[in-house]
Structures are given as C-alpha cells and as structure tokens.
Amino acid sequence: MKIQFFVLSAGLFLMAGCGSQTVMAEQQTLKVCNAENEMPYANKKGEGFENKLAEIIADELERKVEWVTWTDPRYLVRDYLDKGLCDVVIGMDAGDPRVLTTKPYYRSGYVFITRANDTPAVDQWDSEVLQKAERIAFVPGTPPEVMMRAIGRYNDMFNYMQELVGFKSRRNEYIKYETDKLVSEVSSGKAEVAALWGPAAARYVKASATPLTMSLIPDNNTRADGEKVGFHYSTSMAVRKDDQALLTKLDKALENRMDDITQTLKAEGIPLVEEPDQVLVSK
C-alpha cells in the first residue's frame, strides 16, 4: 500500500509539474491580434511595421509572440480580443472606448500625395491644385471625404472612387480600399492628388519608382458649419478592459523601448507629429 501510494503521489507530482510548466509556457507568450492582410500594418508573414513593433514589445517583456490572425477589422475586438483569443492589439486609436489603451506611442496625420516633378505640392484644402484636379484619390468615410464635400469636389469624384474599391465581401459588405493602389494612382498619373492616412501610405510613397511628394495636412481644418475636422491622431496598443495588469506592463515596455519604436516608424517613412498637451487615454 505504501508503495502504491508513493507511485500515485509521484504521478500526481509529475502531473502538477507538467501543469506548472504549461502555465509558465503560457506566461512566456504574448498573444497578439494580427491581421491576415492589412498591409503595411501587418500580415500573416509578419511583413508589416506593426509586426515589428509587436516583436520589440515582446522582446522587452521577455515573451515570444503568438500571432492570432483575424480577417475583418469590424469584429476584431468583439470576436478576438474580448473572447480571449488574443490579448494585445497593436495600432488602436488612443482612447478607444471598447478597450483599455496604453499611452500613445506615436501621433501622425493624413497627407497629400503628389508627383514631385510635375504637380505642385499641396498642403491646404483651398489649394488651386485640388480645385483643378480631374482625379483625387481618397478613402470614403475618412476626414478627407468630409473636406472633399466642404470644397465641393466630392460629387465630382464619386464614380472614380467606385473604380478604386479593392475588395468587397458579398457576405458582409466589408469594403476595403488598398492604399498601395491609391498611391499608384498618383505615381502612374491617373490621379493628380491623393489624400491618405500617412502611416498607411508612407511605405508605398517611399517605394514608388516615380518620385512623390508627401505633405502633412494641417490639423486646423473646418467644415462649412465651423465644425473642426481632425487630421492628426494618436495611436496606442490595446488590451481587454479587465486586463489592467498587462496594460501596465505594456506602458512600461513602451517607455523603455520608445527609441526603437520611433526608429522603426521613421524607417517606414511615417510622418510624426508632437502629442498635444492633453493626451487621450482610456480609463
């Protein structure tokens, strides 16, 4: 009986040890919500700049990245983060009410893109170039659309914008505009100007065989009714609302590796602007 008890106890001990090792293994991974194909941010191959940022943070936390792939951004928080399939979202708007967000790790803005050799640079919405342009590429539902309406050019571009839709799911009507395609409209001469989110466009502007000019749009634009239209936004990392412990660790990791993060963003060509005095963070 004693021998049997010893064997049983040893078995339980081994099982408990395996369980502890499993917990330790889980603690040593950082489950990152990763886009299947949302370049230049991220993809399954790890080629996006947000993939690089995730690796930097995981290194600081002494964890290994575990990529959890999602396909539709509309359901990222509800179906992946909130359900515990992944724990961190890289590249979330600072202060997003659905999650807890870290202190912003960069702030950027929308840009005007023109051909460097034959189109004057544009830096204001009242530019004569915008009034005379036959085609202006932009993504519907973004601040540039609001200003396109304000300057009376939206209706002129409606049919053109329908030509630029890169992806549409019949099942859920998720419409996607490929930023590289919109940049190529300018580099190829099909459009005179593009108004796009700088971090999304920077890689393709930099890689263009045709020299392009990327000008940051000021953050002082208003609609006809005087309402301000924001063009500069801060980006954070996000966790579930009940995961304050991980949020604290991410904030510390961001602080410790900010030089590496900024270097990665600059290498991407992303235009960076200073954070405002009042930094927006979620509570």
Structure overview:
The protein is of the alpha+beta class. It folds into two domains: 2-106 and 233-268, 3-Layer(aba) Sandwich (D-Maltodextrin-Binding Protein, domain 2); 109-229, D-Maltodextrin-Binding Protein, domain 2. 39% of the residues lie in helices and 23% in strands. The chain has ten helices and 15 strands. Strands 1, 4, 5, 6, 7, 8, 11, 12 and 15 form a nine-stranded mixed beta sheet that branches. A hairpin with a 3-residue loop joins β2 (37-38) and β3. α7 (179-187) packs across α8. The termini are far apart. Residues 1-16, 20-26 and 279-283 have low confidence and may be disordered.
Show unreliable segments.
Answer: 1-16, 20-26, 279-283
Distance between the termini: 59 Å
**What's the number of helices?**
10
Give the overall pLDDT as a whole number: 88
Determine the structural class based on helices, strands and strand pairing. Answer: alpha+beta
List keywords for this structure.
283 residues; alpha+beta; D-Maltodextrin-Binding Protein, domain 2; 2 domains; nine-stranded mixed beta sheet; disordered C terminus
Provide a brief overview of the structure.
By secondary structure, the protein is an alpha+beta fold.
Record the SSE blueprint:
Blueprint: H1 2-27, E1 29-35, E2 37-38, E3 42-43, H2 49-60, E4 64-70, H3 76-81, E5 88-93, E6 100-101, E7 106-115, H4 128-132, E8 136-138, H5 143-150, H6 154-163, E9 167-168, E10 175-176, H7 179-187, E11 193-197, H8 198-207, E12 212-216, E13 221-222, E14 228-229, E15 232-239, H9 244-256, H10 258-268
Parallel strand pairs: 1-4, 1-5, 8-11
Antiparallel strand pairs: 2-3, 5-15, 6-15, 7-11, 7-12, 7-15, 9-10, 13-14
